[in-house]
Amino acid sequence: MLYKTRGTGVKVYNSYILVIASLLLPTTIILVILGVNTLDIYYTAYIMEALVATELYVYFNAKARRGLNLISAMLFGGFLLSIYLQAMKILT
Amino acid sequence: MLLNRNLYTWAGLGLLVAGILVSLAAYFIFLLTWLIALGIAMLILSFILLVLGRTIPKLPPEVGSLLLETGIDNISAIVEELGIKAKAVYLPSSLTSGRPQALIPLHSNPSLPVITSPLPRRLIVRYGANPDDIGLLVATTGTIAIDMLESRPGATSAGLESALTFLFMGVLGVADGTKVTSNENHISVEIRNPRIENHNAWSHHCLGGPLASVVASVAAEAWDKPVTISQEEYHRGKCSIKLEVLG
Questions:
Q1: CB-CB: which of B33, B44, B195 is closest to A6?
Q2: How many domains does the structure of chain A reveal?
Q3: Complex ipTM more than 0.95, yes or no
Q4: Angstrom distances, CA of residue A26 to CA of A11, A47, A49, A52
């Protein structure tokens, strides 16, 4: 063969997924050790980490970035909903 | 159709089902907040995997390699048959009436050709006033790769580095990053962990390898000037390419 390709062609995807997974799992362990028992805190930590990691991977192609932006928007929507529910709980 | 895609989609679907089951079991049966949170983390990962799975090209990499080799073999045959020893000049789209291409002079001149007006879109072109100023105008891997960029890169080291990293790392997945330095008419590009290996072929002497070809085309487009590959080296997981900007 004139050219020999090595490894997978989507190494950046694997790296991104590994970064996200290795952020979310230790966060859960740390929050469990700290005795956190509120789901909102877990969720807030998760989406903050996911959003920061997504922003750091600026070299994704346009299609991937569009899809990830949609997920970020969904996660942020969930975050706003949790804030709204908390506010309603305090007010009532 | 979705299931036939790839491992990302399968892993995403697996995590989606597992995440839903874990969350529901934790919420209704075990009453454990941390387990619900773990289920949510699995769901977030599954959404990401499903989205990324949709962006993987349907064409297998082997088909891409097949097409690349076929094209390079044909160019090599033409170059070898004509006994061309001159270095190719990578031209920006402004000098080729359309898209960036490589000009291979048929005769080795002591000085590199000076092209001031756009060349016609033909295989054999006359680029100067002398009778020997005839060359082959060919499309290279860089010609097609330029179309994958979202905008034309700026004529700076940072602009070129950003464009090349986006192409090699984000779009093509053939390297782990690039580093560009430029000094007057000389540009040095270092590609980290290139995953396309070069093997000696006749065409490499004039056109360079596929990665060097992409680098030269993008640099020519960024500087809007003809560019030649003066050096290309592979050493310890790095590919060093030196370019010369003409004109």
A1: B195
A2: 1
A3: no
A4: 23, 14, 11, 16
